[in-house]
Every structure is written in C-alpha cells, then in structure tokens.
C-alpha cells in the first residue's frame, strides 16, 4: 500500500462579495452520500437489502482475507420537547414507557440483520443518534448495548459514540455511559446566546454544558464533539462571536458547525420560527468566516464544510494524510466501510447498496411483526454512480480530484468522461473557487465556502433536472 499523501492545511481568509453570494448561495446537497437520499426508490425493498447483506456475508466485505469492520448507526427518535430548528425524524413525548416497544423492535431488527450476515462481524464504529438517545434510561441503553454485542464484535480501539442533550444528563450518567462502552460524546449545543435559545426552544446555560464537559473529561472519554448551528433566528455576528469564544474556552476535540436549513414546508417545527428573525446570507457568511478564524486561532484545523478538529485529533490527522471519508454522520476517519442502519428512518450502506428504514413507528413495527426487514426504499448504485461518488467524495473530503487515481480505479479517461462537467467548472475557476491543474482539479481556500457547489457539478441527477428546492442553501 502506498504512503498517504500529505495535504497542507492553509488558513482560510477569503473575501466573499455579495455578487458571488447571490450567484452561488443556492440550494444543494450536503453529500453525505451520492446519489443523495432523495434519489432512493420504493422499488428497492427488503429482498434487495437481504441480497446486499448476504453478499457481504459471502465475502463482499472482505479485503486481504479479513472482513472489513462495520459501522453501525442506531436511531433513537424520542425527545421530551421539540427544538424548532430540528429536521430530524423524531417523536415528541414525555411518556418514557413508549421506548419499551421500540427497544423490542430494535432487538428484532438486530437479530434479523445479524442472521443475514452470518458469522459475528467486527464493529469498529458505532453511533447513537436521534432524536435524543439519552431519552432512554441507563438500563435501557445498557440492555441495547448488550444486544449489539451479541450481534457484533466490538473491536479494540473502535469509536463508540452517543449524541447528548445536555438537558437530559448529569455527571453520574456520563460515568454510566462510559461503563457501557461509549468512548465518544457529541453535545448538542447549537448556540449559547439566551435570546437565540429562547427563539429555538432549547434553553441550556453555558455553565451547565461547561460542568458536563469537565465531567466527561474526568471520566476519560477519548473524544468530545460539540454541535453548533449558524443562521438561527436572533443570531447576529456579534452574538455568535460570543458563542464561539465560549465554545473555544471549553476546547471540545471536534466541532460540527452546520448552516441552519430553513425548510418550513418540509419540517413542521420550523413553522414556529419567524423568518424575519433569520440572519441574511451575508451575515451567515460572516458567521462562518468568523468561526473559521476564531477556531483556527484556538488550535482547530478546518476539516471542510462543517467540521473542525484540534490539530492532534484523528480527524485532523486524517485530513492532512488524505484519509478523510464522508458518510451519513458527516466526516469520518474510517475507510469507506459498510454502514448498518438500525431503527426508524435510519439510512445505511452495504456494498453498492443504499437503503432506508420505514419513516414512521407504525410502519417500522408492522414490518418487523410480519418477519420482514423494515426497508421501504433504497438504491443499487450503477457504475456511473460509483465513479461520480468517488469524484464527489474526493472534492468534499480532500478538496482535490486526481485524474489518474479515478482512471485507474474505474478504467475511464477522466477528461473524456467528464468533458461536460469540466466545462461547467470554468465559471467556478473564473470566480477563484477551483483551480484546473494538469493532473487534477483542486478546490481553493475560497472554494471551501462553496464546496457543495463544486460537488454539484459532477452530480448527474442535479445536472439533469436542476430541481433543488428540496435541499438546503449551501451557505
């Protein structure tokens, strides 16, 4: 195997004009997959997924004589209260007994999936998301972890993460989570400004989060992530700068900074947000620019699009060495491994297959009661999909596409295959977002602000229909 290619990390201090914003702040995918989930079809069902699992069991996931480790995502949909910005699949309830039926269904799904996989598979990455995973009691979480351990072999040094709502946890619970085997935490913060917190119905004082961060460090968690959102109602560049200073003082290992996607026609809770309170596009780019500068000064590397990591963190190391990947949870250090998705609405990837579970609890339960995997849609990737996925992920993760690596992997002539796309890049070259080199395409420091727009050029589906309203704005 060749040595990793070292990639320099340079400071990002571009000036973005209003004209460029008006031209490029369009709707577009986040590219946690390609093709994107809106391209999944209902003709893909449980039989297709069983075939994908069986292909892996028969050696489809084997490299060098050993099965490649799996990633597993577990979706816990329950929340006690609604956050107005939220676009996740969730169930708002204070009745914790509702989790009992869901956990039984999850155990059934785990057993059905593991039966198709055959031998116990190695698991190197686990992520509990939601909803609010800590809606479950300690006994419920511990029991679910035990079930997963019967189906998968947790490898030493793996990453086992859980998303945390700081309002639902204390130091004692953190200690118990560590005892269950979780070694990574992700705190949902979004913003520390009281007016912003009131506007999005998520009030959690800075002091509360600071105490939990210290407790997590005392407990020895190997990595702590913090989620932030810019573009929320009542946010200003000044108020967000205060939040950035507070976050920097807590020194989380990683930071995920997402642009708020206001899509009230799709997500009912967002209808409670007054659109007049949302910052303008130029203010949002100012927030992003300020964040990149502030976190850079605080010792973070800009990983790309929506992630930062301390210079010594494995995510930053992977970026420098060209080993970065992207999946449904965002940027990852792990190879392009198969992802088993468990729970209502969860999306997975096995081989050349994408699949999604039923989006409602009733549909999810009904499928499992009938002895069927709860897959309701998905996609088997074509050869063209695989080629374009490799190119788009190279853009999103490394900021560079090397012609030769794509040509050798897929036996194509890059310039001929992507002749039309290379022409479409020309305006981005003129805008200073992309550089065309003799051996590849490179995203510039300015281009990282609009990296989704660069990826969209190679998206055959978007170029074919130009229908973008279902996506969020790229800034």
SS strand fraction: 15-25%
Outline type: globular
**Helical residue percent band:** 25-40%
- The end-to-end span amounts to 38 Å
Structural class: alpha/beta
Low-confidence stretches: 1-14
| Rounded radius of gyration (Å) | 22 Å
Mean of pLDDT: 89
Q: How many alpha or pi helices?
A: 18
Strand order of the largest sheet: 11-12-10-9-8-7-6-3-15
Largest sheet: 9 strands, mixed
Number of strands: 21
Brief overview:
The chain contains 18 helices and 21 strands. It has 475 residues and is of the alpha/beta class.
Write the layout of secondary structure elements.
Blueprint: H1 18-24, H2 46-60, E1 62-63, E2 66-67, E3 70-76, E4 78-79, E5 91-92, H3 98-117, E6 121-130, H4 138-151, E7 152-164, H5 171-180, E8 184-190, H6 194-200, H7 206-219, E9 223-230, H8 237-250, E10 254-259, H9 281-297, E11 300-304, E12 307-310, H10 314-320, E13 325-327, E14 330-332, E15 339-342, E16 347-350, E17 353-357, H11 361-369, E18 375-380, H12 383-398, E19 400-402, H13 403-410, H14 414-417, H15 419-424, H16 426-430, E20 434-437, E21 440-443, H17 451-457, H18 460-465
Parallel strand pairs: 3-6, 3-15, 4-5, 6-7, 7-8, 8-9, 9-10
Antiparallel strand pairs: 1-2, 10-12, 11-12, 13-14, 16-17, 17-18, 19-21, 20-21
